[in-house]
What does this fold into?
Amino acid sequence: DAGVIQSPRHEVTEMGQEVTLRCKPISGHDYLFWYRQTMMRGLELLIYFNNNVPIDDSGMPEDRFSAKMPNASFSTLKIQPSEPRDSAVYFCASSLADGNNEQFFGPGTRLTVL
Amino acid sequence: AQRVTQPEKLLSVFKGAPVELKCNYSYSGSPELFWYVQYSRQRLQLLLRHISRESIKGFTADLNKGETSFHLKKPFAQEEDSAMYYCALPYTGANSKLTFGKGITLSVRP
It folds into this structure.
């Protein structure tokens, strides 16, 4: 298994543009998490899904952010319109519902909004 | 509400020196705590969890309920230990969801 896959690895865009980040969780995992990492705030949970259903999106900063999980093997995080303060590394992680609580992280997408 | 505090952002030591990365928590109930590590150009990954009581790469962490701490320790740091370290614990009532501290960068100099 290649682990959690994220694309693109790097994204540079201009303010106002739409950005879509993609994630493929580990096959068979029940949970999928989207995080944002910045120097100031560390690792923040944005939203997470259980069996493709969004459970908690309280970490989503504002309406410009949206996330979907149309099936068990794919999720997207969209920012529209993007702003410079959205520049960060965005991580996707997945885990099993086995009470183990170990999350497996993707390599991240480094987003730069100019 | 649960909270994880990592009071330092950066720790710089020489190779062979002891390391202690601090983590304090607030949690109602019996917490399960974790340390995750992110080496340069690698994914964030689980380093160890308190429930397993194991030593990984020479690191240990003891849960101290009296002091509500879960400090990560290693007696002799190696250069390859240089990385970002995050302490984490589950949310009350939502065990699959973790809250992370802000992380600490460990730099081990030769």
